[in-house]
Amino acid sequence: MSDDQIKLLIESMTDGLDKSDPKAVKIVNELATETLKFRDKLHDENGFVLTVGDVRVALDALDIMVKTSIMPIGLSDEQKALVQILFDKLTLFQ
Questions:
Q1: Which residues contact 2 (CB under 8 A, 6 or more apart)?
Q2: Exposed/middle/buried for residue 11 (C-beta within 10 Å: 0-12, 13-18, 19+)
């Protein structure tokens, strides 16, 4: 999964955000950056390839977690880790 694919995926998942709001843009950029760092760490440490599907599942789970504070079930360990990283990053902005 390329850097551009991750950025486009995250931007598409946040279409409802006001792109003229600097805080919203910063949040989207931070989520993309954290996803890229996580992807690279997984690959460097154990050869795991994070897919577009993994990121989509994680973003959907993140949406649920933001609304309920409950981690959805049925996620892989990698997906859970990404959700937790992104959730923690979002809580820094509140």
A1: none
A2: middle
- State residue 46 phi and psi, 5-degree precision: -145, 10
Parent domain of 75: 3-92
Tokens of 61: 């789970």
For residue range 26-84, list pLDDT tens digits in order: 888 888 899 999 999 999 999 999 998 999 999 999 999 999 999 999 999 999 999 99
Please give the tally of structural domains in the chain. 1
d(CA 2, CA 38): 13
Please provide residue 31's backbone torsions phi and psi, each rounded to the nearest 5 degrees. Answer: -65, -40
Whole-prediction pTM: 0.84
